[in-house]
Amino acid sequence: MRFSALKILKEGLTGNRGWAPHWRDPAPKPEYDALIIGGGGHGLSTAYYLASQHGMSNIAVLEKGYLGGGNIGRNTTIVRANYGLPGNSEFYSHSLKLWERLEEELNYNVMHSQRGIVNLFHSDGARDAAARRGNAMINQGDDAILLDRAGVRRMLPFLDFDNARFPIYGGLYHPRGGTARHDAVAWGYARGADQRGVDLIQNCEVTGIDIENGAVTGVQTTRGPIRAKKVAMITAGRSGQVAAMAGMRLPIESHVLQAFVTEGLKPVLDTVVTFGMGHFYISQSDKGGLVFGGDIDMYASYAQRGNLPTAEHVIEAGMALMPMIGRAKLLRSWGGIMDMSPDGSPIIDRTHIDGLFLNTGWCYGGFKAVPASGHCMAHLMATGRPHEAAARFRLDRFETGQGLMDEEATGSQHNLH
Amino acid sequence: MRLTCPLCGARDRREFTYQGEAVALSRPDPDAGPEAWNTYLHLRENPAGWRDELWYHEQGCAAWLVVTRHTTTHEVRKVQLARDVAKAEGTA
């Protein structure tokens, strides 16, 4: 089934009886060429690119719940490529290019909206840092515009420019940044993978990883054993438990990150604004709700819900930045489990066990990475070599101390990011 | 969430700073080798369940605490002075 405007028109006139499920619901086969543990954004995009780029269609995604039920459905939907550190910057640049052709490639409306992002700054030093970052982005072939105070005021007249603690000096504008409909990204990749023969197996929890003579041979699941010579662990906040089945300990601690949405409002905010000094970022969804978030709750947690002090902190920051949102009613808040790495950057790598691959450590920035994460993970699994855009996401960088990617320059230990 | 400091009683979570899994009480010897130090600094069990954590009563008595807490329910079972735990374990 191919989506098109004509198809929507035809279905609309004929009672919408012609729509079919977007993917099959297959039973697991006894053996595949490769298995992906985790049916979230990263797992589904890996499956899609394994099938579409590397011709590997005899593969399966094993999901203990339902597809897209984790962080891909629990984020603030921001897509951007404004990283400054070598290793990260080329990876997110690669990801943004994949985003820009994703809808055509998948024939799926993921509502990718390049409405731009403004990162505010509040001091001369921060302006210098923003200018340097913007120049790095431009040199890489991406886009950045340094806005002065008047420039920000033209775009966002309702901000509190004269806040006593954080007066707004300007902002770094990244026009190609924006948002996307998070669930649709998972669904689009799932449909694309399914169409290429990938088995998406839901309600199938992996309970063991089989290893013989230092090589992976398959997994045990609640729906029986499945053999495969290649297995990828792509389970975000649950990475620790999955890796433990292979006898591994990871440099990961799981934390909860909250997000919030207000009731639907008329259009007030046509871009994404980040207020780094207040750990606050906000955009307006196409339904009208103001979607915003802040920092993690700052303690280890597997609860997909947060604590009130952090909610208070986030909302205070929002009020400091744009007092007009004080009249909006908060509709709901939720939390996701973040796979926090010591240096704040991700891991896409082999493990010491042959055929066992690892994709984790996305911290609170995994959504924008979904296309490139899958693309690079698929490349690694299919060819045995890291993709050049993700070559620095090595698992051993903590052990060796070489190639650490501390984007925030806060150190490379747990709980500093 | 409230934590019951052994010195100050039940106090608001905002008075405390979370440091991480309570591995600092068993710090390796300086010459223990890279593997022991990598394990100590980076690798974590990261359980979905009970575990011991180090918290600092920053806006209270400034004591370091070992908090036994459940990472899924956020239930707190026990709070001890880190000093006492370290003495009992013979690491202080």
Automatic annotation (TrEMBL), chain A:
Location of this chain's protein in the cell: Cytoplasm
The alphabetized UniProt keywords are: Cytoplasm, Nucleotide-binding, Oxidoreductase
Name any one Pfam family assigned in the record: DAO
Q: What is the lineage of its organism?
A: Bacteria, Pseudomonadati, Pseudomonadota, Alphaproteobacteria, Rhodobacterales
Q: Could you tell me which species this protein originates from?
A: Rhodalgimonas zhirmunskyi
* Gene3D superfamilies attached to this UniProt entry: D-Amino Acid Oxidase, subunit A, domain 2, FAD/NAD(P)-binding domain
**Any GO CC annotation of this UniProt entry:** cytoplasm
InterPro entries to which the protein is assigned, alphabetical: FAD-dep_OxRdtase, FAD/NAD-bd_sf, SoxB
Keyword Oxidoreductase attributed? yes
What residue stretches are annotated with the FAD dependent oxidoreductase domain?
A: 33-380
Report any one BP term from Gene Ontology: tetrahydrofolate metabolic process
Protein name, please?
Sarcosine oxidase subunit beta family protein
Molecular function terms, GO-annotated: nucleotide binding; sarcosine oxidase activity
TrEMBL record, chain B:
GO molecular-function terms, A-Z: sarcosine oxidase activity
The GO annotation for biological process reads: tetrahydrofolate metabolic process
Q: Which domain of life is it from?
A: Bacteria
Q: Which InterPro entries match?
A: SoxD (IPR006279), SoxD_sf (IPR038561)
Quote any Pfam family the record assigns. Answer: SoxD
Which named protein is this?
Answer: Sarcosine oxidase subunit delta
**Organism of this sequence:** Rhodalgimonas zhirmunskyi
